[in-house]
Amino acid sequence: MIPVGYMHKLIAASPPNWGLAQTIYSVSGCVSENFADYIDFWKHNGYWLFDSPEIIDELAAQHAIDLSDTTHFYYEVCKTEFDGKTRQWSSFQPDDAFSTNVAIPHEKHLHGFDVVTFSVRTAPECSPLSCNALAETIPVNQYCLFDTFDEAKHALESGAFEKCEPGPYRIFAVYTLE
User: Fold this and answer.
1) E strands, the chain, in order
2) Using one digit for the tens of pLDDT, what is the confidence trace for 158-169?
3) pTM > 0.90: yes or no
């Protein structure tokens, strides 16, 4: 897994018919929103996330954004992405227009693995488990994530994501900071 960065998010509750899911810790900002429309600040890294929590804190202070109700996340991503049409895994690189120097957290707590779409090849787009309500039919944990990397990979390779947002798809490890 590759360290890709940080985000602060407002966590949404999941619908009651999504199995074990109680909250949505998705990487995408579709359901559990990002702390702001952050791309306009142009402080993100080549993975379109932030290199450290301090960068987010500085932006919040500069733009009077209240972070008190947000949860602090750290993400890592699989070094390959899955193309649902060709059914192949291939490598990808961060956007070289932005510097990327992710600070690794001293303490982090793994909550599971999310599958995220990247059709535009920039920022994380949709997390089909929540955005397309796949959590209604695919077993997820209390955070609306897969418990293991292998579960996420198997779901992709078995076609579970065929009728949702277009890929390619990347598998993210989702952590909160202690």
Assistant:
1) 2-9, 12-13, 23-24, 71-77, 80-83, 88-91, 108-117, 169-177
2) 999 988 888 899
3) yes
Alpha-carbon dihedral angle through residues 37, 43, 46, 47, given to the nearest 10 degrees:
-40
CA distance 82 to 90: 7
Please report which residue ranges of 23-68 form alpha helices under DSSP H. 53-62
Instruction: Quote the pLDDT of residue 166.
Output: 86
Within 10 A of 101 (CB to CB), how many other CB atoms are there? 10
Checking phi first, is residue 112 left (phi over 0); if not, alpha (psi -120 to 50) or beta? left
CB atoms within 10 A of CB 24: 26
First and final C-alpha spacing in the chain:
20
Q: What is the pLDDT of residues 126-155, one digit of tens each?
A: 999 998 889 989 999 999 999 999 999 999
Q: Per residue in 105-120, is it b (16+ CB within 10 Å) or e — as a string? A: beebeebbbbbbbbee
Chain centre to alpha carbon of residue 100: 17
